[in-house]
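TOPIC: backbone geometry
CONTENTS: sequence, C-alpha cells:
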Amino acid sequence: MNWKRPLALSLAALTLGGALTACGTPTASTPEETSAPAAEVQALAATSQALTAPKYVFLFIGDGMSYPQIQSTSDYLGALADEDYWQAQPSLDDNGGAVLDGPEYLNFMNFEGVGSAVTYDSNSFAPDSASTATSLSTGHKTYSGSINVDETGTVEYETISEKLHSQKGYSIGVITSVNLNHATPAAFYAHQASRNDYYDIGLELVDSGFEYFAGGGLLDPDGAEGDQENLYDLAEQAGYNVVTTQAEAEKVTAGPVVIIDEHLADSDAMAYELDRTDDMWALSDYVAKGIEVLSQDEDGFFMMCEGGKIDWACHANDAASTIHDTQALADAVQVAIDFAAEHPEETLILVTGDHETGGLTIGFAGTDYDTYLDLLANQKISFAKYDSDYVAKYKENKTSFEDVLVDIEALFGLKTEGEEGDKLVLTDYELEQLRAAYEKSINGTAASQYEQEEYVLYGTYEPLSVTITHIINNKSGISFTSYSHTGLPVAVLAHGLNAEVFSGYYDNTQVYYKLADMLGVQ
C-alpha cells in the first residue's frame, strides 16, 4: 500500500503546478522551470492576452499577516459586537439558549478573488520579508535578507513597479507604516544583497523617480557611520518635496514627494494603531493622499501600501496591537474600495501578506474550547509604548512591583483581585510569572538558569512587557508559537478588474506573473 502516499504527492504537485502556471505567458510570466505542454501554455497565453489591463492597481501587503491575523481580528470584532458572547460559551453550565453571532468580516474578506500563496524562499520554509517581497515584486525566489537580487547577490531583478514606471508610464506610490527603506517597501524600488544596507537602499529610493513615498522615517539617513550626505537632502536635490508635518502633507497636491509621518514612534516608524490619537494621520490618510497625487497621471498608477506594524506586533507577541494594526490596514483598503467604486472598470485591488509572523493562533491550552476575545479590549497601549513610557521609568526609579501592578491594571486590565468569575484576575501562577519578569526587567535577575528557557519566555523583548501581553493573550484564548516568522501560506484577496485571476493555491512568485501578464510588461 506504499503507492498511496507517492500518488497523493503527485496529484498535489499537479494541482499546485497547474496553479503556478495559471495565466502565464512564455515571455512575461512563465518561470524557466515551468513544464506545461506547449498547447497548454498557448491556451494560457491567449487567456492572459484577453485580459484588460487595469489602469489603477493597489497592492496592500500586511507584513506578517496570514489567515490567523485576519481571522483573529474578525473574531475579535464579532466578540465585541455580540451582546451574549460570554453567555454562549460552551463550558458554561447554562447558556440560556445564547447563540454565538460569529465574526464581523473585514472588508477584504469578501473580495471575489480568493487565493492562497506559498511563501518559502531560497533557504527557508519560514522566510523573511526581503525575500518574500522580492517574490511578490519580481517573480523570483532569493535568500532571506536579500532584496531583488539572485542568490549570488550579483544579478538584479527589475520590479513590477519599475517596469510599469518605465514601460507604461504609470505613476508609482510606496506607502508603509514602518520605515520607507525597510525590506518590504524597498522591494519595490531597490536591489541589495543585504536588507540592512539602509543607506544604499535610501539612495535607490532617491534615484527611483517614483512620484509618491509616504510613511515612517528613513533608517540611517546619514549612513551607518553618520558620515554620509543626508538622504533627505539628496531627495530634495533630486526634485522631491520632502514633507515632515501633517500640515504640510495636507497641502500636497502633486509629486514627486516624500512624506514622513510627523508622529514617529519606535524605530522611527509610525505609531501602532493602538497608540494613535485622532489628531494623527492613519495609514488610510496616506492612501487617500497618494490617490490625490497619483491620479493626476492619465496613464494610471500603481500603489503598494504595507501594514508593516502587523509584523512588528506579532514578533513581540502582542495580539491586541496586531488586531488594531490589521484593522488599520482594512481602513486603508477601504479608501481604495471607495476609489474603485468610482472607477469600477479600471481598478484592481490586491490584499495579501508576505509571510506569517509569530505562529498566531485562536485557541490556548488554558482556555480549552473557549475564547474570551473581548478581554483584549482592556489593553490600552502597545508593548512598545509601554516599554518607552513606563518600563524605562521603572528601571530609572526602581519602581516597586506593587506600584507596577497598579499601572498594569490601568493599562491592560490585569488585576490581583476581583469578583468571582472575573477572567482578568491574575492566578497565582500568572502573578509569579509577572514577578519573575519584573525582576528580570528591573533588576536583571535571571528567570532561569537556562538561556533556552529565558528565550522561550521573553525572546529578545522586554521581559515585563512581553509577559503582560502573553498573559492577556492567553486569558483571551489567543497564543503565539514564535517570536519569528513561520511557513504558513498567506491569503491573496482580489477585488475589481481581473480579480478572478488570483483565485487558487499557488506560489507567491505568481502574484508578480499574474500582474505582469495583465499589465503587459516584459
